[in-house]
Every structure is written in structure tokens, then in C-alpha cells.
Amino acid sequence: MLKNLSPSRASQFKTCPRQFKFANIDKIKEPTNEVQAKGTTVHEALEKLFDLPKEERNTENLHNLFRKVWTDVRSNDEHVHLFDNVEDERAWGLDALQLLSNYLNLENPSKFEPLERERWVRGTIEDVNLRGILDRMDRDSNGNLIIVDYKSGKAPSSKYKESRFFALKLYALLIEKELGETPSELKLIYLQNSTIHTLKVSKQMLLDAENEIIEIWNNIKKAIKNKEFPTNKNALCNWCYYKPICPEFNNNVPNTDKLEKYNSVINEINDTLEAIDLVGGLEKLPENSPLKNTNLNAIKIMLDDVNEKKNNTVSTIEKILRK
């Protein structure tokens, strides 16, 4: 069973329960692609921009921050095979620099100081533990809280505008519960087409967001209990990493259900080992503890065995996904 839910996970379940299962129950990790790497690196450059003195928050320094961030991570396992050649990487980098230039056409970072950046937000609503990271939180000239999120993609048409605020509504709800202060506005900054969308916050909006996340969580629990994660064919399917193993598009797909079992056993063993380690070892446990008679060697052998089975299964599935 999932212990936590983030706004992005909740949105994924809304989009397609089967995709949610592949990613969060079966834990088939989607490798980082060029778009994701660009978004992450651009976000980090914008975060670091506000570490500079106001007078140094200019285009040249922002571009240099991006170059440094990318240089620091481009050789790690997540990114090392991202580009086939130097020309592709250069084109990717130039596009990212354009996004950052677009940002400076939307806001003047030399004129304000964010209240917080990359803030961890956590909270519990009924039995769901929500957590996530919001990009930025500001105070306007009247002292009101503004929640800000950067988007490296293109702003949607007005028809789909409000649905894109789903995550920020949840962040506003958690901020209200944590600080006892209701944010006054949500702001999405779209870098690709230099657009800012804003939404005023109301009590009813936050109540609706709370009801929606409870409904999503209940549906997730029901799906896990019944082992039913239906596919939801939509316009995003062609960009879904899991399409090659999706029954909506293929007749002969691998059964990934065994991964759920492997992950459950792995989590249970790791939780046991962590609990024992926290108290300083088996000898420190009270005699009436249910963990007192744990055979550490046996469960570590079991952990290695289950991990091997899981890795072999994932390897077979990944070969299909890479075709």
C-alpha cells in the first residue's frame, strides 16, 4: 500500500490508473528523457538565481547558472546516455537557455525576494498523507501569500487553464493547514510561450480540492484492493513510456502483477531492518517485541533473493519498453 501521495501521483491516477500502477505499484521506473531533464535543470537554475544579489540577477548569470547545473549532472547515470551526439545536446541546451530568457521577459527578479523556494509541503487529510515540493512562495505588496510554479512547457488554451492548477490548489490547501493562512493567488509561469496564468484562491476552491483528493485516494485504495487499474485512452497515450506494455494497445503484454508482490516483500523486510537498526540492534529490543526473534541472516538472504527476482522481471519488461 502506498504510504504517501503527491499531487503529481494523484494527477497521474486521474489521467490513467494503469499508468499509475506501472509507475507507483509495479515501480517500473521511467528513464529521464530530454524534456524532463530540461525542466529539472531549468527549475534548478531559476532556484539558484535568487541566491545571487538582486543586481546580479540578469540573463548572463542565469544562463551561466544553467550551464553549471547541467555540467554538474550531465555525466551521471540518469543523463549520460541522453543524447546521441554533441549537436543534439547543444540544440537542447540552446532551447533551455531560450526558456530562461523568456522567464526574464515575464518577471524582473531584481525587484523582489521570494518568501521561500523549493519548499517541502506535507500534511494529512483524513487518511491520506500528502507531500510535495512547491517551486516558490511570494508575498505581494499587500502581504498576501502567492504560490508560484514554473512550467517549461506551453500554456494551455483558456478551456484547459483551470485544470492545470490542480497541484497548486493542493499546495494551497496544505499551506493553509500548516500556516493557518490562506494563500490569495496561484500563479503558473509557462516559459515556452512566455505566459502567466493566475487564479484567485477561495475557501470553496480549497474545499473542492480537499474533496477531490479524498475521492482520488479512495479510488486508489479501491483499485489496489480489487487489483483493478483500468486504462484510460487519451491524447497523451502516444507519449506514454508504458504504451508498449499497455493492454489497450497490445494483445500480448507481460504480467507485471508479480512486481507488486516483490515490492511488498521488499518494503516489509526493509521496514523490519530499519526498525531494528533504529533501536541499535536485536539485543536492544525488549523481550516482548515481535521483532526480538528475527533471524537477520535469513531475512537478508530473502531480501537478496526477492531483489534478484524483481530485477530480472524488470529487465525483461524494460527490453520490451525500449523496442
Structure, explained:
The protein has helices at about 5-15, 15-25, 35-50, 60-75, 85-105, 165-180, 205-225, 255-280, 295-320; strands at about 115-125, 130-140, 145-150, 185-190, 195-200. The chain is of the alpha+beta class and about 325 residues long. The protein has three domains: about 25-110, no CATH class; about 115-215, Lambda Exonuclease, Chain A, CATH 3.90.320; about 255-320. The protein starts with 6 loop residues before the first helix and ends with a helix. A five-stranded mixed sheet has the order 1-2-3-4-5, with helices on both faces. It has nine helices and five strands. The mean pLDDT is about 95.
Question: Care to give the gist of this entry?
Answer:
The chain has 323 residues and is of the alpha+beta class.
